[in-house]
């Protein structure tokens, strides 16, 4: 029965959380849930996918898949897709997923729907809900042809442990090397094991009110207290001032995030910033200006100097955690 | 070096969105060049200046008003433009159909590099660059932060953003590149630039002129606004420490996150 084929992404030897999230979701659609995992030395990861609902796991393994090179991965995945003939293809809309998914769709001769936050099965169709204008509006979109290729924003669904049949098949793909025209020369990854902002459950973000790069240490310390699913963010003003890298920027021209908790310190709440984090479940604003627009959207607000509030909050949470 | 820049006109980021049917009400909107496309135009200009040769062509799919953003690109320094003015395609707002017409227009041009923005800030799809590359049958590198093209134009060294860091990639030309913020600082159009832009050639086409018949691959069923966020509570207290303590308590007991 044609079902769903999922692209499972591997980073630093582990499957991304978002890949499990879409696998669990696909289980609700009915039909077989197949997962394709591509990498070097990834066969050991297959059983984990079964735990989250995979009925069938296609493993494409080899040294040529050590680094993500779109052409090689697209060729491999397209071969598996042509074998499985799924009606739906899902991937997590991580940085890699956003690069990979449209290329796969075009290779298969179909369109795609990117960065969705909800999916509903209506007959043969998956209706996908996605934000546009950085979250100022939402559309429900349907793919007109099969396979319906959809990428899903991390944190949109919960990864549930529901056992799938978990049959593993190793696929030997034949790559057309003449088409692979890009080579990764070097890869520089930050040492930190913080989650990416788009995947984080808690984000402690700072703006111009932080006054300088050194003060972000304070936010890092607070974020750390919340555990491994927390990280820091920044407004564009802080990024433009050179205090934080652009990869930290939240907003219309930065990352769109939907954490469970977003703490905004010294951020006024400009429309372009709010667009990027307006879907956070809980927003906390700390700002010394009671008129700052962020207070009209925040669930909890503190009107005070952040240089007094943040250290006090950090101390309080330490106390609670004991 | 000859380059093509795909550029989209979008509502200014300050725009408050109002829904009309499955699209937005366009009254009172200020239209601008999509911010990431400014980086794309700038990079094309800088590469041309470095090589001291070649032409920069802007390709844009959009209605009559898109000519304003096209003129902005020409005023920045692009040499000519192709304006695909075809309502069936711009109204569909489908990345695949958009990529199909853009690729068809690009095929008629000379190019070593095709530049696009990382994403258009209206539909936020981020799909058109990869699809254009697929349809042209050339490699694509998205989220580019730095570009160095070899003097003989055979290859380029590209730094791109990846999750948690950067990757340096060597790629043969021609190539499709999508611009991430940080690639460059877009220039403003100068007054002489604006005057000159008025005389630069803009070729207006329909999808049929380009031989494209592919229809949209997706359909928008509904557009809604998110539920408005309400102002919550302001946490009071004698001093910052008291307010912080009350917030910590709320995070523990109400939000249940600690
Ligand atoms: C095309 C375009 C795209 C954009 N994209 C983005 C984007 O992606 N993301 C983004 O964030 N912005 C974006 N912006 C910029 C946006 O318009 C705002 O300029 C920016 O968000 C302001 O950042 P901020 O809130 O840190 O700074 P400000 O607006 O200057 O606010 C600083 C706040 O800190 C408070 N403050 C100062 N000192 C203290 C203190 N000691 N204690 C407590 N509070 C204090 C002040 O009261 C003030 O409210 C974009 C703009 C444009 C034009
Ligand atoms: N209608 C269009 N005309 C020209 N270029 C476009 C159009 N739509 C998208 N693009 C290009 O593709 C990039 C990514 O757009 P998108 O995939 O829609 O987010 C944009 O930054 C533009 O460079």
Short overview:
Chain A has 322 residues and is α/β, with parallel strands linked by helices.
Written description of the protein model:
Chain A has 322 residues and is of the alpha/beta class. Chain A has helices spanning 17-27, 46-51, 70-84, 95-107, 216-225, 236-240, 271-277, 306-321, and strands at 4-8, 10-11, 14-15, 33-39, 56-61, 88-92, 112-116, 118-122, 125-132, 137-143, 148-152, 167-170, 182-189, 202-206, 230-234, 261-265, 282-287, 300-303. The longest helix of chain A is centred in the C-terminal third of the chain and has 16 residues, at 306-321. The mean pLDDT of chain A is 95. Chain B is of the alpha/beta class and 258 residues long. In chain B, 30% of the residues lie in helices and 29% in strands. Chain B contains seven helices and 15 strands. In chain B, helix 2 (66-76) packs across helix 6 (191-197) and helix 4 (95-107) crosses helix 5. At the A-B interface, helix 4, strand 7, strand 9, strand 10 and strand 13 of A face helix 4, helix 5, strand 9, strand 10 and strand 11 of B. Flavin-adenine dinucleotide binds at residues 207-209, 235-238, 249-254, 266-268, 270, 272-273, 276, 287-289, 292, 305-307 of chain A.
Order of helices and strands of chain A: EEEHEHEHEHEEEEEEEEHEHEHEEH
Instruction: Give the overall silhouette of chain B.
Output: globular
Measured as a percent range, the helix fraction of chain B is 25-40%
Return the CATH class of the largest domain in chain A. Answer: Alpha Beta
Number of helices of chain A: 8
Mean pLDDT of chain B: 96
Largest sheet of chain A: 7 strands, parallel
Oligomer: heterodimer
CATH 2nd-level architecture of the largest domain in chain A: 3-Layer(aba) Sandwich
CATH H-level name of the largest domain in chain B... which superfamily?
A: HUPs
The CATH topology of the largest domain in chain A turns out to be Rossmann fold
Strand order of the largest sheet of chain A: 7-11-6-1-4-5-12
Largest sheet of chain B at a glance?
9 strands, mixed
Number of helices of chain B: 7
CATH architecture level-2 label of the largest domain in chain B: 3-Layer(aba) Sandwich
CATH top level assignment of the largest domain in chain B: Alpha Beta
Euclidean distance between termini CA atoms of chain A: 53 Å
């Amino acid at each position: 029965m044609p079902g769903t084929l999922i692209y499972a992404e591997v980073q630093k030897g582990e499957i991304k959380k978002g890949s499990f999230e879409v696998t669990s979701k696909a289980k609700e659609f009915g039909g077989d849930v197949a997962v394709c995992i591509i990498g070097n030395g990834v066969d050991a990861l297959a059983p984990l996918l079964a735990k989250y609902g995979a009925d069938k796991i296609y493993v494409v393994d080899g040294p040529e898949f050590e680094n993500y090179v779109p052409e090689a991965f697209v060729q491999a995945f397209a071969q598996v897709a042509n074998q499985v003939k799924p009606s739906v293809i899902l991937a997590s809309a991580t940085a890699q997923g956003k690069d990979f998914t449209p290329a796969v769709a075009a290779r298969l001769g179909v369109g795609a729907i990117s960065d969705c936050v909800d999916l509903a099965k209506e007959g043969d169709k998956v209706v996908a809900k996605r934000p546009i204008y950085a979250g100022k509006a939402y559309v429900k979109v349907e793919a007109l042809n099969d396979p319906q290729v959809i990428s899903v924003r991390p944190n949109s669904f919960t990864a549930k442990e529901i056992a799938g049949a978990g049959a593993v098949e190793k696929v030997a793909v034949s790559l057309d090397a003449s088409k692979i025209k890009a080579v990764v020369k070097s890869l520089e990854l930050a040492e930190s094991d913080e989650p990416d902002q788009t995947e984080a459950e808690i984000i402690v973000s700072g703006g111009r009110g932080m006054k300088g790069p050194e003060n972000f240490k304070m936010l890092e310390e607070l974020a750390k207290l919340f555990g491994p699913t927390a990280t820091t963010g920044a407004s564009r003003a802080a990024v433009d001032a050179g205090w934080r890298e652009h990869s930290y920027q939240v907003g219309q021209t930065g990352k769109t995030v939907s954490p469970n908790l977003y703490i905004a310190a010294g951020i006024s709440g400009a429309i372009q910033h709010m667009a990027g984090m307006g879907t956070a479940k809980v927003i906390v604003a700390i700002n010394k200006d009671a008129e700052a627009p962020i207070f009209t959207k925040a669930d909890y607000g503190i009107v005070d100097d952040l240089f007094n509030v943040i250290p006090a909050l950090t101390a309080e949470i330490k106390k609670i955690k004991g | 070096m000859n380059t093509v820049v795909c550029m989209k006109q979008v509502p200014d980021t300050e725009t408050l969105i109002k829904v009309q049917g499955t699209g937005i009400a366009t009254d009172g909107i200020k239209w601008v060049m999509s911010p990431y496309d400014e980086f794309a135009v700038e990079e094309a200009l800088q590469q041309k200046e470095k090589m001291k040769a070649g032409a920069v062509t802007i390709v844009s799919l959009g209605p009559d008003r898109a000519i304003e953003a096209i003129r902005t690109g020409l005023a920045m320094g692009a040499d000519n433009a192709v304006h695909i003015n075809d309502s069936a395609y711009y109204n569909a707002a489908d990345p695949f159909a958009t990529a199909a017409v853009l690729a068809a227009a690009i095929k008629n041009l000379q190019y070593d590099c095709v530049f696009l923005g990382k994403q258009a800030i209206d539909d936020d799809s981020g799909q058109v660059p990869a699809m254009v590359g697929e349809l042209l049958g050339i490699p694509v590198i998205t989220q580019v932060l730095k570009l160095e093209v070899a003097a003989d134009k055979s290859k380029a060294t590209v730094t791109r953003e990846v999750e948690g860091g950067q990757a340096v990639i060597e790629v043969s030309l021609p190539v499709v590149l999508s611009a991430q913020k940080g690639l460059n600082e877009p220039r403003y159009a100068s007054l002489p630039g604006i005057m000159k832009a008025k005389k630069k050639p803009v070729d207006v086409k329909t999808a049929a002129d380009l031989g494209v018949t592919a229809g949209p691959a997706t359909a928008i069923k509904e557009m809604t606004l998110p539920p408005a966020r309400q102002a919550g509570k302001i946490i009071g207290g004698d001093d910052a420490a008291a307010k912080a303590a009350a917030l910590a308590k709320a995070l523990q007991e109400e939000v249940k996150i600690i």
